[in-house]
Amino acid sequence: MEAAPTILSETRPAKLVVEGVSKRFTSKRNIVQALDNVSLSVAKGEFVCLLGPSGCGKSTLLDIIAGLTKPDEGRVLADGKRVEGPGRQRLVMFQESALFPWLDAFGNVMFGLKLRPDLTNAERRRIASEYLDLVGLEKFKHAHVHELSGGMKQRVALARALAPDPHVLLMDEPFAALDAMTRDQLYDDIQRIWMESRKTIVFVTHNVREAVCLGDRIVLMSPSPGRIAQIIDIPLPRPRDINSPELAAYASKIAAALKGKAVGAAEE
Ligand SMILES: Nc1ncnc2c1ncn2[C@@H]1O[C@H](COP(=O)(O)OP(=O)(O)O)[C@@H](O)[C@H]1O
Ligand SMILES: [Mg+2]
């Protein structure tokens, strides 16, 4: 494997390499340096959490990895190829599910499968059905979006992102708007799905416990300008229970260390 200078202590092949990425936003009054020379490598099959307070550039970095935003400097490589725009191998799931309200759950997942013109319609229907089963919505395939709870909508969004079988799943605070009980269930589900599918996942959060529950590594970001402050390995066994005392103790230690560094990432 070719060793780029930004590769971290990884032995697995890099799925994503972010090299020296900077991004400024210029508005009427000021210039925001959303990202300043950010470099990161994500291994194939790894679950990485980008953690940091609001405004530190997490979403900007995720959008650049997705190919939705272009960096001013630097580049992103996916499987060694420069990312020039969005692609079906890197799909994004947002905090707001952005489902099509005029379609039912099944229709929304079928819409995602438009990214797979190589499949027959019958195959797409079978896959849509399978993924709705996978996220626990077998009984709600034909429910319309307005009939679904917040958690169910995010499950549909997850099925829609997974069904085209992308190599990389990019998730931007996907559970942040949900109540705690719904979220806890989704932590179990996303870990199960990740362990079965071995997708590479980059997951944005501002919640230390969530990051400790999900991440193989936590990439801690700091604001103004947006930078990587620290990378923390999380060696806890899986599946992890967000409510377990071990995880809570681990998260408190990290939160305390962060406070000591005055990075300001808040634990909820
Ligand atoms: N489209 C944009 N136009 C102007 N400023 C932006 C835009 N997107 C993000 N920013 C600014 O860039 C910084 C990083 O934003 P963002 O990546 O959304 O942070 P986070 O996701 O960590 O909260 C913030 O100061 C934000 O206000
Ligand atoms: Mg954000």
Q: Strand-and-helix sequence, N→C?
A: EEEHEEEHHHEHEHEEH
Give the CA-based shape: globular
Strand fraction equals 25-35%
Q: List low-confidence stretches.
A: 1-9, 262-268
Terminus-to-terminus distance: 40 Å
In angstroms, what is the radius of gyration? 18 Å
- Main-sheet strand order equals 6-7-8-3-9-10
The tally of helices reads 7
Q: Let me know the number of strands.
A: 10
What does the main sheet amount to? 6 strands, mixed
Architecture per CATH nomenclature, i.e. the level-2 architecture of the largest domain: 3-Layer(aba) Sandwich
The CATH H-level homologous superfamily of the largest domain: P-loop containing nucleotide triphosphate hydrolases
The percent range for helix content is: 25-40%
Determine the mean pLDDT: 92
The helix-and-strand class reads: alpha/beta
Total count of domains: 2
What is the name of the CATH topology of the largest domain?
A: Rossmann fold
Give the names of the bound compounds: adenosine-5'-diphosphate, magnesium ion
Quickly name the level 1 CATH class of the largest domain. Answer: Alpha Beta
